[in-house]
Amino acid sequence: MSAEYATFGLAPAMRAGGVLANGDVQVHRDFTDFIVNGRPLLFQLSDLDAVSPLAADIPPAIFTAHVRRLLLEAEAPLREGRYVIYGCPECENLACGAVTAVIEAAPDGDDFIWRDFAWQTAEPADLELNGYHGIGPFRFRGAEYREALGQLLTADEPRTRRRVLLIGARVALLAKLAAALRTIGIGAEIAADAAGVPPDELRTYGAVAFGRAVPDETRRSVRAAFDQAEAEVAYVDGLAPIVPLLVAQIEHALDRSSRAQRRLTALAACREAARLEVTSTCRVQLIAYRMDRLSRTHVHEIFDEILEPGEHRVPLPPKATKGNSYVVARTSTSVLITPTTTP
User: Fold this and answer.
1) Using N-to-C axis directions, what is the helix angle for 142-154 and 60-70, rounded to 10°?
2) What share of the chain is helix, strand, coil (3-state, %, to 5)?
3) Dist CA 141 CA 105 (whole Å)
4) Distance, CA of 290 to CA of 13 (rounded, Å)
5) DSSP structural state of residue 7
6) What is the dihedral of CA 236, 242, 243, 245, to 10 degrees?
7) CA 191, CA 186: separation in Å to the nearest integer?
8) In what order do the strands lie in the sheet with 98-105?
9) pLDDT value, residue 292
10) What is the Cα–Cα distance from 140 to 30, expressed in whole angstroms?
């Protein structure tokens, strides 16, 4: 099959971390995704929990080495000229599985070709058994390809700011939230306000989370401090004193991808059902959280299935939506949160 011309670009993406309903944790990873013909390449593959080699939390020397490999300025890491396109978000072990492809210079010009995509767990790759036969080959124009990847080597800004400032009155809750965030790979600090914090430090934060009891005056003061420091951050107003729910809110706030490049784009819920919209085939999990009159937290795992692109309605059991309740929808790359409403 001849390689057809495709557009090539890069965009920020994340593997959504979180505290799961069974108590397990999922590590947060920021990475740069490949945008092929206007869509994330990851979404064009089968539903995968994976990240590209261009992860934000790897040492700069290794990050640069990955970029230079994609530019064919260094040898392929696998046999037969194969490169890792997406790998395990927890480690770099090929045994966990990775999407690989041959990357080569076009024989008749300045272009780059990606071909023979495969799911690989050992060497050599078995294209007949594990090849992605409907993906590629792609031919990228050399100038466009080099410019996109070259910008990663010359960028002055940090690739990510995975730190969150927690401001609230309930110190014990904030301590638990900070510990949960740190466990999934997000730095977290607790403060009463942002007064006196140097601008350079404020610019290292990606989000500020306010507890429900924080007065408006403090909120305005904190926002003013970040504005004065010219630090663009996302602000989170905590919905309820439930740690997994707050972690999900912060994960959503840290998502720097554009709406057009997200798998999960809409979520709403009433007492009877949740409605959501997905843009590509993916696994979706729905979890409901509520607090009873004694401030005890109840967690209900509602839904865990592969959904096709489009709008979907998922019934909610009555016991999951009593009183003040909230629904969290998760895919491997995004999280949305909504309170349930009375129709």
Assistant:
1) 170
2) 25, 35, 40
3) 10
4) 30
5) -
6) -60
7) 16
8) 4-6, 138-140, 112-120, 98-105, 82-86
9) 87
10) 25
For 92, the token pair is 């770099």
Give one word for 341, left, alpha or beta, with left for phi > 0 and alpha for psi -120 to 50.
beta
Report the C-alpha gap between 318 and 66 in whole angstroms: 50
Q: What is the pLDDT of residue 302?
A: 95
Q: What pLDDT score does 90 carry?
A: 85
Tokens of 187: 């730095």
Q: Whole-angstrom Cα distance, residue 242 to residue 185?
A: 19
Is the CB of residue 336 less than 8 Å from the CB of residue 327?
no
Cα 334-335-336 angle, rounded to 5 deg:
130
Single-letter code of the amino acid located at 295: S
Cα angle 166-268-220, degrees, rounded to a multiple of 5: 30
Alpha helical stretches, state H, the chain: 41-44, 60-70, 127-130, 142-154, 171-183, 199-202, 216-228, 243-254
Cα 66–chain centre separation? 20
Tokens of 148: 């996109």
- Residue 9 has a pLDDT of 96
20-to-111, 237, 302, 320 alpha-carbon distances in Å: 44, 21, 13, 16
- Entry pTM: 0.90
Amino acid at site 254: L
Across the 343 residues of the chain, what is the mean pLDDT of every consecutive 10-residue run? 84 91 88 95 88 91 94 93 93 88 93 96 90 92 96 71 88 95 94 89 94 94 94 94 96 90 94 95 95 89 95 95 92 94 75
